[in-house]
Amino acid sequence: MSDECQQSKTRVQEFLQRELSETEMDAIASHIATCDNCESEYDFEVLFNSVIQRSCSEAPPEELAQRVLARIRDQISKLA
Amino acid sequence: MATLAPRLMVQSASLDSKPMSKKPTKAELEARVIEFDQQAMPYLPNLYRLALRKTQNPAEADDLVQETLARAFMYWKQYEQGTNVMAWMGKIMENLGKNRIGKLARNPFKSSVDALEDWQVGAATSLTATAASSAETIAIENLPADVVKQALDGLEKNRRMVVYYAIVEGMSYKEIAETMGSKLGTVMSRLHRGKNELREKLRDYAIQEGYLTEEVGAADE
Fold first, then answer.
1. Are A10 and B129 a contacting pair, CB within 8 Å?
2. Helix (DSSP H) and strand (DSSP E) numbers for chain B
3. Looking at the predicted structure, is the pLDDT value of residue B159 above 90?
4. Domain coordinates in residue numbering, chain A
5. Do B51 and B105 form a contact (C-beta atoms < 8 A)?
6. Which of residues 55-114 of B touch A (CB under 8 A)?
7. How does pLDDT run across B176-219, given as a tens digit for each residue?
8. Banded pLDDT at A58 (limits 50, 70, 90)
9. What pLDDT score was predicted for residue B16?
10. Theoretical Cys-Cys bridge with A44: which of A21, B99, B132, B215, CB 3.0 to 4.6 Å?
């Protein structure tokens, strides 16, 4: 595996989170564009992230907002 | 520094203790209500999901969200406008959580965590370097959401929370470090290890359930 491949594979997460310098971002982007292997790893990471996001989609109980507001009103009455 | 970890918040024993010596004026309170309503309340669903990841228990999560938002309102003046409000409230929740002992939910992935923990530390880098096969991509894409969530909830807590903050909440490493009170490098390694471990668990599950054959999963290059 070339150094560029190693670099792009170990830093793909930082690349996606935009946690790299502009130069590093550019280097990885241009490498991915020319390397099929790294491109599929990149695609996998994008998909994997969206699969993780999708899995956490629980809706809060409907009355939770009401319970929160009741507590805050209670606080306000103590503060006011 | 009045950024993410207001010392006042950690020290105050309960909601009833007065955070400020002076009572807010009526106008101040009204302004706070409006700001809070517009900026904090829309994150209630996010806070609930965050609390679920932490507690793995809907009743505890419900409670934790109430306490978090009540505190966020109480200390609203300490929130620095323009910064990530979810990160700020996450920090409040972290602090509250330190005083609680979350009940461990039953989880089929849980038992394998300790064993994974040991070898995963050394294997983190090499796993990152493994290329994803198209078969793995398809398998992961087709896993039921509940399976993915259970695998996530089965990760060691710090790793699970970092993966959640980074991937689901889209928080920056710096925000996560501040929220969790850890170093940037720790955030990065927890994220890498957490994701690798999650991927490995899901790959095992996919093989076990016949979404993926062992040959393809293991021998791909």
1. yes
2. 12, 0
3. yes
4. 3-79
5. no
6. 58, 62, 65-66, 69-70, 73-74
7. 999 999 999 999 999 999 999 999 999 999 999 888 887 544 44
8. very high
9. 45
10. B132
**ipTM computed for the complex:** 0.91
Q: Does A76 touch chain B if contact means CB atoms closer than 8 Å?
A: yes
Two structure tokens written together for B166: 């980074």
In the chain, the amino acid numbered B81 is Q
CB contact A21 to B (< 8 Å): no
Minimum distance, in Å, between the CA of residue A6 and any CA atom of chain B: 7
DSSP per-residue codes, B98-143: HT--PPPPP-TTGGGHHHHHHHHHHHHHHHHTSPPPHHHHHHHHHS
> Of B63, B57, B78, which Cα lies nearest the Cα of B11?
B78
Question: In terms of Cα–Cα distance, which of B140, B147, B149 is closest to B168?
Answer: B149
Phi-psi region of B210 (alpha: psi -120 to 50; beta: other; left: phi over 0): left
pLDDT tens sequence across B51-83: 999 999 999 999 999 999 999 999 999 999 999
Quote the pTM value. 0.79
B14, B73, B205, B220: best mutation site toward chain A, by most A Cβ within 10 Å? B73
